[in-house]
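ping. complex inputs:
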Amino acid sequence: MPTEPTAALPKNFLRPCLLLLLREEPAHGYDLLERVQSLGFNGSDPGGLYRALRTLERERLVRSAWEPSESGPDRRIYEITRAGMEELHRSAKAIAAGHETVAAFLGRYEEFVALSRRGTSGQQPKRKRAQVS
Amino acid sequence: MSELEALRVRDEVLQAMYWMRSEGLAERPAASELAGFLAVPAQTLGPFLIRFAEEGYLDRDEDRFSLTQMGEERGKHSFADEFADLTRPTHGECDEDCWCHSSPDEAARCLEERAHAH
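pong. complex structure:
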């Protein structure tokens, strides 16, 4: 995993996250490093971000250009390409399908044990596990 | 190390260091930090960094390295050169004023139509 996730996330989840962030607006690397934290990454691995961006650019899913800076060296600004939008859409559909599977798993597990999740701590199981006599 | 390999690593290192610097992440990273950034073993990268310093691309201060003027220019230009052919619109990409940029719904519909057309 190129950056450290703060929760169990799908494999290579950083790729669609970066595409999503760039779909929202073009961005510099440091900006992406901060914004990716809202999607479950702790932002402690700028190298992972850099390598992911280079891979996406080689695959023509993003493109970048130097942007002059008045206060320091020029910065690379990234934007999503048309192919990147298509890849993002495919990824979103795959994630949605995975989400349904995970929701089914959690629903069945919580028949036995209530999970403490964000905003839902303290819930009781829907039913008690069958007792073995 | 072969000369070709050294040139490839040189551009990769200089590009990464320029990027780190321009993003305000590190001006003088340690060899171990650079190795972690590029996901390569530190013992592999170390001899390359020493060589690039001897060639005038890097300034060395014990275990830390920074870009010289020559290294900065090479890092910036090789970055641009590497992706030069990727920064032009590719076949099938729309212009900035394409209708599908109007809303997420239209973009999604456009993508679906294109997917079915392939």
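The beta strands of chain B are 58-61, 64-67.
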